[in-house]
Write a structure and sequence with these properties.
By secondary structure, the protein is α+β, with helices and mostly antiparallel strands. About 30% of the residues lie in helices and about 25% in strands. It has eleven helices and 24 strands. It is globular, with a radius of gyration of 30 Å. Residues about 75-100 have low confidence and may be disordered.
Amino acid sequence: MQQEILINWSPQETRVAVVEHAAVQELQVERTLERGLVGNVYLGKVARVLPGMQSAFIDIGLERAAFLHVADLMSSINSRHAEPEPLLNGTSASSPGASLQPIEKQLFEGQAVMVQVLKDPMGTKGARLTAQISIAGRLLVFLPQDNHIGVSQKIPLRQREDLRQRLQSLAGETGGGFILRTNGEDATDPELAEDIAYLRKTWIRIKDAALRLPAASALHQDLSLLQRVLRDMVLETTQTIRIDSREQFEKLKAFAVEFMPATVPKLQLYSGERPIFDLFNIDEEIAKALGRRVDLKSGGYLVIDQTEALTTVDVNTGGFVGARNFDETIYKTNLEAAQAIARQLRLRNLGGIVIVDFIDMTKDNHRDAVLAEFKRQLARDRIKTAVNGFSALGLLEMTRKRTRESLAHQLCEPCSACVGKGVVKTARSVTYDILREILREARQFNPREFRVVASPKVIELFLDEESHHLASLSGFIGKPISLQAEAVMAQEQYDIVLL
């Protein structure tokens, strides 16, 4: 299946779309001011050691000092002058069996230490650090301070030993350990060798920078989205990678020549007059991917709701009446929905638990065929998925690994009117809230007059259908109640002013 990757670059934002058969299959967005720090490597400077907490604050050049716990610190510190040393029993200091020395015996104020960000700063908290460096590649994770060769536990047990031996042979005796990532399960030896070379080059650059730069300097930044396109998204089926910026095209080409030469022939500079995303109506697809409803070609539709714990997908027949009988109608709708849902998971980058409510099927062969089609479509996903099949209630349960924020969480924020609830109170409900609030205030205070400031729709109700209730309350409390409409107010907002 032929694939094309389109890159729309601007100084403030990079957007990447993966297109197959003229349909957008995946979208990724990275904003310059919102790039995370996770994976970045710094030459930190110890600002303060806290023996009571077995932690230290490390200055890495950010606004707030970062936090390093003794469990994330190796016994042999990776300063600019030292490589980590093995312990006497042959295990490295990062090994689970290594005993932890008190942090005050390992660090002192002003010391330079190489660290990597585990968690971004949040609120008033600084970044969380580790001294155990790991560098992620496309297929492998490089552990420069360890000699361990490992394989992802998500790869079936029977395949792990063969993969470990292949990786051990390719890694040789040069030093450093590797972990084979899940998406490297079917990689060829040349692909693995290319990733090993890239990771070792990266580590050499980090060490060289640590010798040249002063403390509190950045030594390595995790790849930008542009570079991750080459590392993570290019497949054998990728025909072209088109980018609409000459400057970024040259930078990307130089990166590809050095680290991923096989991708160089696929790179193209787009110089057309139309914006590159207009070629496949990608902006329109982004708008659709932010909505709840997805229409199917047959007339059926999906309703997708993303919650804190999971994502639910409901399949409906809608206006589809094209099959010979009711069972066939349901079957055809579910088959089409299976294809659409797999695409929407990629497009919206929905991760975690996903529950799909297909339309109930009475025939087992129909249910099996829909499940098989769904799994076939999910097999195209770069992200790891696991399908548990249909539950006793007829719901299909699955998981999809979280790799980053979903598209909706990246581009949107909770509505200021409903605060993320998805619904607002009716105008009539708000008028009754106001009447109760006035009665409550009248029992505590003795103003000359009450003034209600609310949205035009609420005020209109008070002037029309609810006018007799307002008049009755005014008579009961013995105070006048005046009304003031404010167009800027949301429907649930109101103020009661005591005059």
